[in-house]
Write a structure and sequence with these properties.
heterodimer; A: 457 residues; five-stranded antiparallel beta sheet; four-stranded antiparallel beta sheet; 31 strands; globular; B: 182 residues; 76% helix
Chain lengths: 457, 182
């Protein structure tokens, strides 16, 4: 008789490597069964005959796609493929930084030359730049103007919605700009930037309360879905919309069990590598919600933020890690988004060779906290660029130790990394410095208060 | 697990009867303790714990729809595990699942650790087994079920279950570097 013990051990080792316990599964089973409509029970013989007639009638009828036909769904008919990180952006336009000063933004190339300027009202926390780095938009008066990020040239003008714009997001291919309006009920408007026109307008139901919402696209252009989280401050509602050929359609929606996030407190999100879980960070509470966009459920992770707005979230491009930079305690906390584990805060320890230069390292002035304009990480995810009151710390994500301290002694407030990762733009004492490997910093002659970027911190 | 001593057995029979008559709460009480083995089974068949969660939930809904098929005084575990296994087989047939599986070799390249690579090879070999052989291997070695219950889940005789198990192991043997099965 063969001893099967080694087989058992081998199979268990192979499968344990992919097994992750699901402690919430019993309650999900409960919800799935109790939420299942009673009609889903297999009908008795008499009912079956009636059902057969009804089904036959339905088969020859016209299916009307509309709001009433939609229902909550625990599992989508099809699921998205895993999400691949986009990698470096090599287009020249993606290397140009757009810095905001007052009601104007200036485009600065890596040599410090100004390539163009655009006028517009650039409020905080909106996405004004496409993910491919090629397009920036200005929202001003009655218009939304679309500009080439490489030159500032005007590409298209689209009418702005009469109501205010609460949040905005670019589609991953840069073709569409989705706006979440602030009227009641709130609308999602999809602007076709290639054609310069409104492609679709969809009113969201149940928006009787004051606006506070959030919108983002699935990062895979081949999976045309966008996500709205409305009523963030009261009872969060997740709405999943499709946008095939620019036509917005409601796919599924559900209230989600997610801690409310105070108002105003913009959320910062990133799609995880599985292509279906949206990590959503609330700056006020420090809660990280992992929202399953297929099953419409959410799990929550307490990141240990001590005070509102102290953590500045930076997602790894591949969607596996979240780095929480806290300038007040000079730490970075790493969250493994796959295992959902929060690491201990890593002190930004400075090598002895740099210690002498950093005598004034600690923050001495009162700071209220805030939200960074950008996600300051290299395109390959290997380096964090941490804006500190006394310099720019370059930190390796592999060793979680600083590798360089740049602009020592100067107050760095924001950092933008060029699309290919070769240049780092830093706001220093309200001015712009451009850094590159093995090259002295170039300072551009512009006053700057922030960056236009595809994703804020 | 329910039905481990006489008092519980009576309780399970009562719940089965209520579930058969449309009591959703009774079915939930029967299924909740099975969440962990069902999730292990689904992970063993799909190699994706998140997808496995979905499969178990869908299986629970199907169990609710077909609760009348639950036989009085029968054990719920093999019945529900069979539904989970069928749900996993349906999921694997979908096109997007093959997309996910095709992505796996790329992840191997990124993780050159030899043990990781060996376990990944074994998972790939498992995934390549016919459904009943794979199911027999996972039920026996990952859920530690007795052969009688394996047979009940697969829906075949005990002898046939043993045959499926040994055929599956014979195909895995080169990867496990073991002696031939006699």
């Amino acid at each position: 008789m063969t001893d099967l013990t080694p087989y058992r051990a081998g199979v268990q080792r192979a499968l344990d490597a992919v097994y992750v316990p699901a402690p919430a599964l019993p309650s999900l089973i409960r919800a799935a069964v109790l939420d299942a409509p009673a009609r889903q029970r297999r009908p008795g013989p008499a009912l079956a005959a009636v059902a057969a007639v009804l089904l036959a009638a339905l088969a020859v009828g016209t299916v009307v796609w509309g709001r009433a036909a939609l229902s909550r769904s625990h599992v989508a008919a099809t699921a998205p493929p895993p999400f691949a990180a986009p990698g470096p952006l090599t287009a020249p336009a993606a290397q140009v930084a757009w810095v905001v000063g007052g009601v104007e933004a200036a485009g600065i190339d890596p040599s410090g030359h100004q390539v163009g300027s655009i006028k517009g009202a650039f409020g905080p926390y909106l996405s004004y730049r496409s993910g491919d780095g090629k397009t920036v938009v200005a929202i001003d008066g009655a218009d939304i103007r679309v500009h080439d990020a490489g030159s500032g040239a005007l590409l298209a003008t689209v009418a702005r919605p009469a109501a205010g714009v609460g949040d905005a997001a670019f589609s991953p291919d840069g073709r569409y700009l989705a706006l979440l309006t602030t009227d009641v009920p709130e609308h999602v408007q999809l602007l076709d930037l290639a054609q310069g026109k409104l492609a679709s307008d969809l009113a969201l139901a149940n928006a009787s309360e004051r606006y506070h919402g959030f919108i983002t696209f699935h990062p895979d252009a081949g999976y045309p879905e966008l996500f709205v989280i409305s009523h963030v401050a009261s009872g969060p509602q997740l709405i999943v919309l499709g946008y095939v050929h620019g036509n917005l359609q409601l796919i599924r929606e559900s209230g989600i069990s997610m801690p409310s996030c105070g108002d105003p407190a913009p959320l910062t999100s990133h799609m995880l590598a599985d292509g279906r879980t949206l990590a959503v960070f609330c700056h006020e509470s420090g809660q990280l919600s992992l929202v399953d966009t297929q099953r419409l459920t959410a799990a929550h992770v307490d990141t240990g933020q001590q005070n509102p707005f102290w953590f500045s979230p930076i997602y790894s491009p591949d969607g596996t890690k979240l780095y929480l930079h806290d300038i007040f305690s000079e730490t970075v906390t790493v969250v493994d988004l796959e295992s959902r584990k929060v690491g201990d805060p890593v002190k930004i320890t400075v090598p002895a060779s740099l210690a002498q230069k950093l005598a004034g390292w600690f923050v001495t002035e009162a700071e209220a906290g805030g939200i960074a304009d950008t996600q300051p990480i290299s395109p390959d995810g290997s380096l964090l660029y941490l804006a500190e009151p006394n310099g720019l710390v370059v930190m390796s994500t592999r060793s979680m130790t600083p590798t360089q301290v740049l602009l020592y002694g100067r107050k760095v407030t924001d950092v933008w990394v060029s699309g290919d990762g070769a240049h780092v733009y830093a706001l220093v004492d309200g001015r712009l410095a451009i850094l590159a490997d093995r090259r002295a910093p170039v300072e551009a002659n512009v006053s700057a208060g922030g960056f236009l970027s595809a994703a804020h911190g | 697990m329910l039905a481990t001593y006489p008092g519980q057995r009576v309780h399970e029979e009562d719940l089965v009867e209520r579930a058969r008559n449309g009591d959703a709460e009774a079915l939930v009480q029967l299924l909740e303790p099975l969440a962990e083995p069902a999730h292990r089974l689904a992970t063993g068949l799909l190699h994706d714990p998140w997808l496995a969660e979905d499969a178990v939930q869908e299986a629970a809904v199907k169990a609710w729809r077909h609760a009348r098929r639950l036989r009085p005084r029968s054990s719920v575990r093999p019945w529900f595990l069979a539904i989970v296994a069928n749900q996993c087989r349906d999921l694997r047939r979908r096109r997007w699942f093959s997309v996910i599986r095709q992505a796996e070799p790329g992840r191997q390249v990124a993780a050159p650790d030899s043990d990781l690579a060996a376990t990944a090879d074994l998972r790939r070999a498992l995934a390549g087994l016919p459904h009943q052989q794979r199911l027999a291997v996972v039920l026996t070695f990952y859920l530690d079920l007795p052969l009688e219950e394996v047979a009940a889940v697969v829906g075949i005789s005990v002898g046939a279950a043993r045959s499926r198990l040994y055929r599956g192991l014979a195909r895995l043997r080169p990867l496990l570097e073991m002696e031939p099965i006699r």
